[in-house]
């Protein structure tokens, strides 16, 4: 196999019947009947827009059918059921808060990158922007953001891209940002705060599957009036929550697994259309996981809540301005603050 990347031909459709699949190639009006082994191989190509030579060889070795897989792929290429990828470049432009981004990438990775930026609004006017690019090099990906570049594997590239966008956002011109999950219902926001591992994302996704809209699970910007706008990055689901959330999000089981810079295995769930405007905050909850018989809420006085929020806040280049300080005080003055102590996700969702 001499190709780098292959994909299914655009004019081929297939239907599976039991262990067999029937393919129809519109050009030439040809039919192909696949046995169980070939059906599994075809579904391997269906699961991703593109497959690399190394991915195919790894699959063949895992299945202990190297010769069969190589012969089948070669035949499908000859018949036009698979086609070699020629390196088309996709350009996307989007705004993350005050930051405009342009990303150029090989088509092979564009769909995965869209999981990260698909919730953000596009821009098409002549403005200053941060230029990014991702290209395939020797079955690795070269990520270039501004003047910085790094080489990542297929499992690492999407989290690395998201991390670079987050870093760029926090170095841009904004008022103040909070590390929290942002949910909206009836035009008002609920903020979930807490230390890593407190369950912000898991609880946020549980609430989003009920009556809330999830506008972001990581960063929210605060304006001068103390209102918030969640940054619509996809929700980051850690491996320990996959089984728990799979009953609420059926697509989680088939979502790709990625490796973050801290080596944690994660999956991404789009949050939907992120807020393009700021909304007032009704409640701020600081989460605490504990072995309790049922969830309970403890009121936090405004002064303590203000200090706790400041610990979750960041200003441009890690400097909290006077304006940012005032914005957080206005947020606290207009919202109820409390500590949610809980153990069970379903009970917590019902309690809130």
Q: What topology does this entry show?
A:
Layout (H helix, E strand, L loop, with lengths): L4 E4 L3 E6 L2 E6 L4 E5 L1 H11 L4 E2 H10 L3 H14 L2 E3 L4 E8 L2 E8 H11 L12 E8 L2 E6 L2 E5 L4 H14 L5 E4 L1 E5 L2 E6 L6 H9 L4 E4 L2 E4 L5 E3 L4 E4 L3 H5 L11 E2 L5 E5 L11 E9 L6 E4 L2 H10 L1 E2 L7 H13 L1 E7 L2 H7 L1
Parallel strand pairs: 8-9, 14-21, 21-24
Antiparallel strand pairs: 1-5, 1-6, 2-3, 3-4, 7-8, 9-10, 10-11, 12-16, 12-23, 13-14, 13-15, 16-17, 18-20, 19-20, 22-24
Helix pairs in contact: 2-3, 6-10, 8-9
Features:
30% helix, 6-stranded mixed β-sheet, 5-stranded mixed β-sheet, alpha+beta, 352 residues, 10 helices
Fraction in beta strands: 25-35%
| Average pLDDT rating | 90
Number of E strands: 24
Low-confidence segments, ≥5 residues, pLDDT <50? none
Radius of gyration, in Å, reads 23 Å
Q: How many angstroms separate the termini?
A: 56 Å
Structure description:
The chain is an alpha+beta fold and 352 residues long. It contains 10 helices and 24 strands. It has helices at 36-46, 53-62, 66-79, 107-117, 157-170, 200-208, 242-246, 302-311, 322-334, 345-351, and strands at residues 5-8, 12-17, 20-25, 30-34, 51-52, 82-84, 89-96, 99-106, 130-137, 140-145, 148-152, 176-179, 181-185, 188-193, 213-216, 219-222, 228-230, 235-238, 258-259, 265-269, 281-289, 296-299, 313-314, 336-342. The strands form 6 sheets. It has a 6-stranded mixed β-sheet, with helices on both faces. Strands 7-8-9-10-11 form a 5-stranded mixed β-sheet. A hairpin with a 5-residue loop joins strand 16 (219-222) and strand 17 (228-230). Helix 8 (302-311) packs across helix 9 (322-334). The termini are far apart. The relative contact order is 0.11.
């Amino acid at each position: 196999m001499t190709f780098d990347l292959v994909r299914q031909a655009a004019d081929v459709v297939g239907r599976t019947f039991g262990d067999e699949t029937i393919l129809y190639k519109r050009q030439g009006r040809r039919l192909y009947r696949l046995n169980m082994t070939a059906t599994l191989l075809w579904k391997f190509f269906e699961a991703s827009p593109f497959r690399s030579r190394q991915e195919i060889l790894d699959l063949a070795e895992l299945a202990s059918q190297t010769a069969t897989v190589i012969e089948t792929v070669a035949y499908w290429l000859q018949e036009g059921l698979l086609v070699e990828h020629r390196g088309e470049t996709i350009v996307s432009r989007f705004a993350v808060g005050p930051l405009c981004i342009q990303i150029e990438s090989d088509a092979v990775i564009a769909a995965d990158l869209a999981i990260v930026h698909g919730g953000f609004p596009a821009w098409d006017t002549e403005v200053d922007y941060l230029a990014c690019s991702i290209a395939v090099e020797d079955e690795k990906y070269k990520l270039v953001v501004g003047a910085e570049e790094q080489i990542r594997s297929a499992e690492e590239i999407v989290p690395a891209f998201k991390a670079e966008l987050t870093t760029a956002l926090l170095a841009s011109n904004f008022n103040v940002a909070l590390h929290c999950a942002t949910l909206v219902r009836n035009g008002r926001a609920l903020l979930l705060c807490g230390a890593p591992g407190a369950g912000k994302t898991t609880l946020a996704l549980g609430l989003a599957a009920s009556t809330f809209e999830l506008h972001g699970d990581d960063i929210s910007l605060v304006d001068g009036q103390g209102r918030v706008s969640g940054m619509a990055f996809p929700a980051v689901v850690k491996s320990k929550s996959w089984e728990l959330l799979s009953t609420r999000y059926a697509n989680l089981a088939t979502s790709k697994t990625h490796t973050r810079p801290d080596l944690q295995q994660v999956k991404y769930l789009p949050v939907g259309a992120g807020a393009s405007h700021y909304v007032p905050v009704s409640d701020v909850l600081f989460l605490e996981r504990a072995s309790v018989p049922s969830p309970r809420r403890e009121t936090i006085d405004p002064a303590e809540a203000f200090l706790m929020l400041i610990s979750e806040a960041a200003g441009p280049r890690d400097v909290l301005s006077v304006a940012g300080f005032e914005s957080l005080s206005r947020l606290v003055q207009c919202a109820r603050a409390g500590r949610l102590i809980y153990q069970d996700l379903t009970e917590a969702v019902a309690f809130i």
